[in-house]
Design a protein that fits this description.
30% helix; two-stranded antiparallel ribbon; 92 residues; 4 strands; 34% strand
Length: 92
């Protein structure tokens, strides 16, 4: 399994995993609820900078740049997988 997901990108080894739309939405939802739980419980996260902690707690959302990468199109050619990535930015 490990070798199946291993790729070389720009000369560096990395791992990539194909996920269904449902799995991506479930992961996104889980991350949002985890952030909300941390914010509501007022837990201090170790190792996070002030800016990162502000993002987790969703403070000053309009001052933070959010980025989400979405896989719009995945195709296979010549034994290789290609993915077109779209970035969505919220700048306020």
């Amino acid at each position: 399994m490990r070798e199946k997901c291993r790729y070389n990108y720009k000369g560096k080894d990395t791992y990539a995993f194909v996920m269904s739309d449902r799995y991506i939405m479930a992961l996104y939802t889980y991350c949002l609820s985890a952030r909300k739980a941390v914010a509501l419980e007022n837990i201090e996260m170790e190792g996070l900078s002030e800016a990162e902690l502000s993002m987790v707690k969703l403070e000053s959302v309009r001052e933070v740049l959010f980025q989400a990468l979405l896989l719009d199109d995945v195709k296979f050619e010549d034994g290789k997988m290609y993915a077109e990535l779209s970035s969505i930015y919220l700048l306020c």
